[in-house]
Amino acid sequence: MSESKKKIEKLSGVKGMNDLLPAEAVYWEQFERAVRAMLAAYGYRQVRTPIVEHTALFTRGIGEVTDIVEKEMYSFVDALNGEHLTLRPENTAAVVRATIEHNLLYDGPKRLWYMGPMFRHERPQRGRYRQFHQVGVEALGFAGPDVDAEIILMCQRLWDDLGLTDIRLELNSLGQADERARHREALIAYLEQHADALDEDGKRRLYTNPLRVLDTKNPALQDIVNAAPRLIDFLGDASLAHFEGVQARLRENNIPFRINPRLVRGLDYYNLTVFEWVTDRLGAQGTVAGGGRYDPLIEQLGGKPAPGCGWAMGVERIIELLKETTPEMEADGCDVYVVHQGDAAALKASVIGEHLRSAGFDVIVHAGADGQAGSFKSQMKRADASGAVFAVIIGDDEIARDVASVKPLRAGAGEGQRSVALDALASHLADALTGDSSSDAADADDGESSGGHTLH
Ligand code: ATP
Ligand code: MG
């Protein structure tokens, strides 16, 4: 191979970080529409925080001995100013940081939501990526169990709106710090008796984060964790009453749940209510959303003490479920594809395109200037493939008569090709789209035109 023909190496994306191509984006758009409608239905308002934060936010906010902080963060030193920064692995800490920084709670509690990419250096596999996406809510400044129940109801409504079944709710209470401390002592004493049988993670966490040992997925440890002292047995009256308040509201709303005493969640900031939405349809990565109450967090991050609770859902996992329930989701095609033949028509095509867009139509104008537009036949092929409802065709003949030919491309969009005065094109298409046959008035052969815009 000669020097000049040397093959240029192709670049690929970063492992565990996915491209989202149009065929899949259709599912994401449907999900995002549903999620925005659901969030609006509960009066939640959006916040957008940066993707990069100071590393200290996450070490302080999430906890030093969590999976995320121990081994999953994309952290780096900014070469230009030496700052220690991290690509956000989750967004609760950042939303709380922004709330404190902008004093958002000064005039009362807030219901907030966010959506966007998160980054964790994990082993990529189905449902587990290094860049993934979460939608989350944070209800800040509300102490009662009513809001815990509200954020759970929100998830159920979203599953219903998306037509997703088989997602079940698991619930637990982590109580308060002093209750956890008493349970922790008992748990450590118990785990010490079984120390030899623990796996490496278990041994490491025995003293640092024994609660997390209960969260293990190692099948060999299930008997040990099943018989371990249960946190729920260490809760005092106030914690139990809060937990009961959440459950009562779920029961009133006919939301089934299972209390899972081993549900602890992987982040340190939770107290009282914790929950996960789980499905069996995604293999090992079956948790589609998780959340709970994190009353200590705002103060921990330097704010005036205020309670909080929220959840985050993994969008990729929900998209997987959506794909299963609707294997063939087509993108909406455009309304109109403009086909043109000849130089004069090629010029006019862009004007017609703009006119129709102003009238509210989605329009693709066939591209290819100065004789490069291709044959009529090949343009019509493109028009068909585009999914457009109509082809609007202009050639020398149409230009001379100030008309366009309209050809329905989809069943139900009318019969046969007809000639329509340019002035009446928008109203003719609108009528044809809504199936109103009185559009005959718009036919160029009737002489009179009713369109408001002038295209000459
Ligand atoms: P897991 O136990 O699956 O690691 P987690 O407890 O680390 O989950 P959270 O931090 O609670 O997860 O994040 C909330 C949701 O975000 C998860 O329930 C999951 O749906 C999604 N999620 C978390 N990590 C990933 C990832 N690496 N790739 C895709 N989705 C993820
Ligand atoms: Mg994880």
Automatic annotation (TrEMBL):
EC class of the enzyme, as a word: ligase
GO biological process annotation, one example: histidyl-tRNA aminoacylation
Domain Aminoacyl-transfer RNA synthetases class-II family profile intervals: 1-322
Locations listed in the record: Cytoplasm
EC number: 6.1.1.21
TM region(s), chain numbering: none
Domain of life: Bacteria
InterPro entries cross-referenced by the UniProt entry: aa-tRNA-synth_II, aa-tRNA-synth_II/BPL/LPL, Anticodon-bd, Anticodon-bd_dom_sf, His-tRNA-ligase, HisRS-like_core, HisRS/HisZ, HisRS_anticodon
Lineage: Bacteria, Pseudomonadati, Pseudomonadota, Betaproteobacteria, Burkholderiales
Main location: cytoplasm
PROSITE patterns: AA_TRNA_LIGASE_II
Assembly, per entry: Homodimer.
Positions annotated to bind L-histidine: E90, N91, T92, R120, Q134, E138, R265, Y269, Y270
Keyword Heme: no
Protein's recorded name: Histidine--tRNA ligase
UniProt xrefs under Pfam families: HGTP_anticodon, tRNA-synt_His
Gene responsible for this protein: hisS
One GO cellular component term: cytoplasm
